[in-house]
Amino acid sequence: MGRWMDGVLTSGVTAVGLTAVAWMLSFGPIAEDVSGRAAVGLKADGQPWAKVAIDGRDVTLTGVAPSDAAVKLAVDSADRVFGVRIVDAPVTVVPLADPYLFSLGRDGDRVTLTGSMPSEEARAALLSWAKKVMPTATLDDRTVVSRGAPANFAAAAAFAVGQLADLKSGAIEVGPAGYAIAGHPKDAATYGRLEEALKSALPAGLKVAADKLVPPIPVPYRFGLTGAAGKATIDGHLPDAATKAEVMEAVRARYPGGVTDRVDVAPGAPAGFAEAIFALLPGLSRLSDGGFDLSGSTVAIRGGVLTEAIGRQVLGRMKGLLPAGFTLAGPGPVVLPPPAQVDAATCQALLARVQTGDKILFETGRAALDQRSIAVLDALVGGSLACASARITVEGHTDSDGDPTSNRALSEARAAAVADYLVAAGIDRNRLVAVGYGETRPIATNDTADGKQLNRRIDFRVE
């Protein structure tokens, strides 16, 4: 019996051992299957950060969880896998950042990123975007993964990187207070684009907390005006919106046909820059297709003049009105070709036609020409040039008010003033005679104000 029992015992031990070996051999694939299904479940439940390790039927989760809630979700996900007995999760939870800040700094081609990132994936995506928009920059990433990012963080951070790419140097911060930017844009056009984006292209939910962008100073600092046919185009720079509005008003007053505005507001104008513009505007009325370029403190005048004398007068007056430190440079206006010559009768009709609109005006009771008559007087110069060989008598006339002798003297003085203007503008004095007729040759009644106004006149007789 003893031998029989020994056999039985020996056989039983052998069977148990074989069963254990079989179980151990079969569990490897089972454990691998459980681990695989747990990993798939975690990914499907949105917890790919959790890494699975299995011991028997016990699962251990490791990794860095984005939140405490994510840890619970991962544990629940693994616990639902068939065959799992116990789930342990000794994971690290991403720290909470409060306040949640992200900042960028740039100095030339060196870019530093600091602050918080919601995940490693988010950090990788942002760095990829930074390398794309700043391919030559060296990126110094000092960010850490932290919880607490606002819902619009990814869009806000990408927007910040895009704007930093347009700065030569500067800093940007995204935080609870909003979006703060400071620095030096690459050029004036870039500055305008950045400012426009701050007004109209901010990501949803983001507001501007501080805008300290420094407008680039144009080099050279310039302003230009080109006029033709009663219209003008202005371009270049002016220092502020108020100055621009004043300049626009002054230019519109002289160009009723309209003004095309291509002026940008930018800092850096030399002292007296706007005053120089105002000083130059009046002289343009004597130029054909006149204009000027003001670069720094140097002025170049463009346009045509009827005579060389008028050109000298224009430049002399402009020079006298310019602020101290501003100078005229360049050849200045050019003398226009002489007009086609006409006979005396046609020339007289031409001179008369000049005064069918604006009249030659004088200061009240005096022979001094009114500055408002310069355009008419220059038109008379042009008419006189059309009959270069003819003699012209300038006739002065008055109304009947006052003493006849005084009226004759006043009319003669006024006729002489017009002749002197024509001579100063380049007409040969030997061609001109000034005569005053006083009130002796009326062309209308002196009993009405309108009639008297018609009788106060300058006529021309061409022979």
Could you characterize what this model shows?
The protein is of the alpha/beta class. It has four domains: 28-93, 2-Layer Sandwich (GMP Synthetase, Chain A, domain 3); 102-213, hypothetical protein tt1634, CATH 3.40.1520; 222-335, hypothetical protein tt1634, CATH 3.40.1520.20; 344-462, 2-Layer Sandwich (60s Ribosomal Protein L30, Chain: A), CATH 3.30.1330.60. It contains twelve helices and 21 strands. The chain has helices spanning 2-44, 68-79, 120-133, 153-164, 188-200, 241-254, 273-280, 308-321, 344-354, 374-385, 404-424, 449-455; strands at 51-55, 58-62, 64-65, 86-88, 92-93, 102-107, 110-117, 138-145, 167-175, 178-185, 208-213, 222-228, 231-238, 258-265, 288-295, 298-305, 327-329, 334-335, 392-397, 432-436, 457-462. Strands 12, 13, 14, 15, 16, 17 and 18 form a seven-stranded mixed sheet that branches. Strands 8-7-6-9-10-11 form a six-stranded mixed sheet. It has a three-stranded mixed sheet with strand order 1-2-4, covered by helices on one side. Strand 15 and strand 16 (298-305) form a beta hairpin. Helix 3 runs parallel beside helix 4. The longest helix is centred in the N-terminal third of the chain and has 43 residues, at 2-44. The protein starts with a helix and ends with a strand. Residues 1-27 have low confidence and may be disordered.
